[in-house]
Amino acid sequence: xxxxxxxIIGVGEDGLAGFCAARQEALSNADLVFGPPRHLExxxxxxxxxxxxxxxxxxxxxEVLSFETLVPHLAPDMQVIVTLRxxxxxxxxxxxxxxxxxxxSTLHVLEALGxxxxxxxxxxxxxxxxxxxxxxxxxxxxxxxxxxxMTHASGRRDDLFDHDGQITKRPVRALTLxxxxxxxxxxxxxxxxxxxxxxxxxxxxxPSLRAIAVERDETRAKRIRANADMLGVAHLDxxxxxxxxxxxxxxxxxxVFIGGGFSHDLVNMLWPLMPDGARxxxxxxxxxxxADIMRAQSEFGGDLLRVELSAPKAIGSRTGWxxxxxxxxxxxxx
Length: 334
What we know:
Layout: H1 21-29, E1 33-35, H2 37-42, E2 50-52, H3 61-64, E3 79-84, H4 88-99, E4 106-111, E5 119-124, E6 137-142, H5 170-180, E7 187-191, H6 197-205, E8 210-215, H7 218-230, E9 237-240, H8 243-246, E10 255-258, H9 264-270, E11 279-284, H10 287-300, E12 303-307, E13 310-315, E14 318-323, E15 327-333
Parallel strand pairs: 1-2, 7-8, 7-10, 8-9, 10-11
Antiparallel strand pairs: 3-6, 4-5, 4-6, 11-15, 12-15, 13-14
């Protein structure tokens, strides 16, 4: 099985000095590193990759073994290995794959490896009927299916995100992510996050990226949390509250996106909080916000872009182009 999903590394008091080449390679290639804070310090892992294991120990199991972390990897012929908390979880995994449109995936159920009861059985996810799976257990998966394949390009399907209409639509989202220009290890503030689609696509761009989504509406904030969990980016930091009341508690950003509630006063508040070199992108759909964006652009510089999109719509027995609201986009580097 290629590309194992998880590596378990022992750490001694000598830290990295005691690592063989294989351990060093596994550590350097890991997207996330879970461990006690002292061990993370010993091996020099910091930032978003570092995930301190909580106390009690069992509280960390669920985060490591979340099945939703598989979503970005769902594609035909991809192979992964997942560890599972008990035998019944294999059936739950098979059902989840079937629900995602990947019921034809092959599961290699690996039970009690290394012991006298070691057993390996191969089943198709949508035909899963095993009742006696022995713990400890893991599963090697060869994915087969097309329904849930997620593109690696920005501007993913709108129906991937639960929303109430407050969402940056797919074409505009693609242009916005292009303007945000994600770079490894950067932190995004998504202000007025709506459905969270911008922050989620930002995180999907690279495993080292971080994002904080700020949304004042509690229902929408809960929806953002659910969207992030479902799409495999549970590390999205969701804050509920008004933008002006939240900014003082946030780590300084590399990039800021304003998707809702743009105003000239907000920019004046944000500008001193942004480090030199930080980037800001804002979208507007109202005349009032357009005026504020043009005023801000005249004071702080940057580029303006006007986006007008049309889609086919029935006109009697024929079809014509129906225009959506035009979008004004401002992007600037401090």
